[in-house]
Q: What sequence folds into this?
């Protein structure tokens, strides 16, 4: 039994009377409207609109829980603390909860990025580790996450397919990296995309990460050179709609 726990994830709790307004000015998704049981995938970007951290937001009353990459949790907390200034916000590890995943848990919320990713929830920590199974499933669908796959300060947020995976709101107002992200969207200037290709077809100049155990190379490639048949269906459809529009 591998269980359903995603042991490579960690949880940060953002609390205090300014918690939601604080995050609203930083992240790519709307935070005040976050509801319990309706998680949102979001990013914290550089001022130029490049990905630094990606994570999933969960509402817990007035608090916000951040479901993030475990190896980056301390760095993310430190980065958020730099922005806190005098706001009434507390940023702390939530040790009493763990993140869970299953393809067969209809009573749990769907992953906010793509329904085919399965169901995701939080509960008290238990034994087991579903992280390898989820990683293989996620990458089979062409969905990337974390510092190793997205890169830090390397890949523009929209190049990570963030719009197609519901990782950006265009009507929420200002946030870090908003200006360039909005410009790329409205001018249809997303000229490169993060994709997975067989490792045998890897191009080291475009490579973000090599995954020998799965036989994959994650690469940033120009849109005009992509073969729609080699892309996941959700991405091929989105690129086709953009080209037609």
A:
């Amino acid at each position: 039994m591998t269980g359903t726990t995603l042991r490579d994830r960690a949880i940060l709790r953002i609390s205090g009377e300014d918690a939601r307004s604080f995050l609203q000015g930083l992240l790519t998704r709307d935070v005040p409207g976050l509801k319990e049981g309706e998680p949102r995938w979001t990013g914290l970007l550089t001022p130029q609109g490049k990905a630094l951290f990606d994570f999933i937001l969960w509402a817990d009353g007035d608090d916000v829980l951040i479901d993030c990459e475990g190896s980056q949790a301390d760095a993310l907390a430190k980065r958020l603390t730099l922005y806190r200034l005098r706001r009434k916000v507390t940023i702390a590890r939530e040790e009493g909860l763990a993140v869970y995943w299953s393809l067969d848990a209809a009573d749990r919320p769907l992953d906010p990025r793509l329904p085919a990713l399965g169901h995701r929830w939080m509960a008290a920590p238990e034994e087991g580790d579903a992280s390898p199974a989820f990683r293989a499933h996620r990458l089979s669908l062409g969905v990337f996450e974390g510092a190793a796959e997205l890169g830090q300060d390397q890949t523009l947020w929209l190049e990570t397919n963030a719009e197609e995976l519901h990782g950006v709101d265009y009507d929420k107002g200002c946030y870090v990296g908003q200006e360039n992200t909005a410009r790329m969207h409205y001018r249809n200037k997303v000229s490169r995309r993060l994709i997975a290709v067989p490792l045998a077809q890897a191009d080291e100049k475009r490579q973000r990460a090599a995954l020998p155990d799965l036989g994959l190379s994650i690469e940033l490639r120009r849109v005009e050179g992509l073969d729609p048949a080699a892309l996941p269906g959700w991405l091929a459809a989105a690129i086709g709609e953009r080209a037609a529009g």
Notes: Strands lie at 9-15, 40-45, 51-60, 63-69, 90-93, 98-102, 119-123, 192-198, 207-211, 216-222. The mean pLDDT is 96. The radius of gyration is 18 Å.
